[in-house]
From TrEMBL:
Gene Ontology terms, MF aspect: DNA binding; sigma factor activity
Name used for this protein in its record: RNA polymerase subunit sigma-24
UniProt key word Transcription regulation: yes
Keywords of this entry: Sigma factor, TPR repeat, Transcription, Transcription regulation
Amino acid sequence: MSTTDSAPGAQPRVDAADTSGATHRAVEAIWRIESGRLIAGLARVTGDVGIAEDMAQEALVAALEQWPRTGVPPNPAGWLMTTAKRRAIDAHRRESNFGRKAAVLGEEAVSGVDSDAVIDAMDDHVHDDVLRLLLTACHPVLSLESRVALTLRCLAGLSTDEIARAFLVPEATAAQRIVRAKNTLADRGVQFELPGPEELSERMSSVLEVVYLVFNEGYSATSGSDWTRPDLCNEAIRLGRLLAGLVPEEPEVHGLLALMEFQASRLPARVGPSGEAVLLPDQDRRLWDRLLVRRGLEGLTRAESLGKPLGPYSLQAGIAACHARALRADDTDWARIVSLYDVLVRVWPSPVVALNRAVAVSFLQGPEAGLKELETVAASGRLDLYPHLHAARGDLHARSGRLEEAAEAFARAAELSRNEADRATFTRRATELRGTPG
C-alpha cells in the first residue's frame, strides 16, 4: 500500500521548499530537449510559428506552476505536449475557422471532435515538422540576427534572457528580434511547409549559416570578457546533430557537424589555468576531447561518402581534421591544409579564408612566404578593422625576426579587439616583443 497520496507513478510529494528548485531545473532541462518538437507540432496545426511558440510557452508556464506541487510526471515530455495540444484545440474551437483546421487533421466537422484523436494526429510526421520549423525559423526573409534569435528560441529552447546574454545585447533587444521575426513571417505569409528541391537548397544554406554563426560566437566570442562560450557551442552542435538526423543525405550538414565537433574538441585546451587564451600551436593536445575528434572524423567520412562535391563546411572540416590527427603541432600536414584552402577560396571566396590560407602557407613555406600572401589579402582594405589580420601579421613578423614591426601589429590588434581575452593576449604579445633584445 502506498504511503503517499501521489497519483500512481508520480513523484512523491514533499515539502515544496525542498523541491521547487530541483523541479524548476527539471522543467528547464526537459524544455530544452523537447521545445523544438513541441513547437514544430503546434506550428503544423496552427500554420503560425508565433502562435505555436506562445502555446508552447503556456504549457511551460503550466508545468512551472503545477509540477512543484504535484511532482514531475512519469512522462514529462508527453505531459508538455498534451497540455500544449489541448490548449491548441481549445483555441481552435474558439475560432471561426476551426472547422477548416480540423478538416486538415482528418476531422469532418467541429461537432463531436475527439480531442484525443486530434492530439494523436498531431504526433504524425514529427520528423518533417521539426525540419519545417528549422527552415521557417531560418527563412531568408528574416535578417540574420532574427534568424539566430528565433532558432535559439524555438529549436534550442533558450529563454530571451539566455539569448541576450549569449550575444551580449540587452534583453529588450533580443525580445524585439524574436517578435520582429514572428511578425515578419506572418506579414509575409511564409507557409509552414517543406519547400521544393530548388528552394530547399537555398533554405538549407540559410539554416547552416545560422548554426555556424551560433557555434562561432561560442568558440571565439566577438566581444565581452569570455574568450569562449562552451554552452553556445553545445547548442550549435545539438542543432547540427538534429539537422543531420533530419536530412542525412546532405553532405554539408555532416560537414558542418564534423567541423563543429573538431573545433569543440579543443575547448578544454583553449583556456589556461588563469583563464588566459591559449592559441592552437601552444595547446596541450592531450586535453583535446578524443570522443569529439572521433565523431568529427566519422562525420567527415559520411560527408565524403555521399558522392557530391564538397562544400565550404566539409572543406573546413577537412582542414580541422588535419589538426585533429596531429598528435603534435610539428606533425601537422600543412601541405594538405594549403591544398584544401586552395579549393575553399574558390568555392567560398572570403578575405578571412584567404587570410587563414596565408597563415597555412607560412607554416608550409616559411613566414616570409606567408607574409607576402597576407599583404596581398590586406591590400584590399576589407580587413583593416579585423584584429586577427594584425595579429597574424604580428606573428609572421615575429617569426621573421622583425620584433618591432611584430609588436606594433599586435598592439594594433589589441586596439581593435572587442573581446577582453583576445585584447589581453595581443597586449601581452606586444609587451613581450618590445622587451625582447633585438
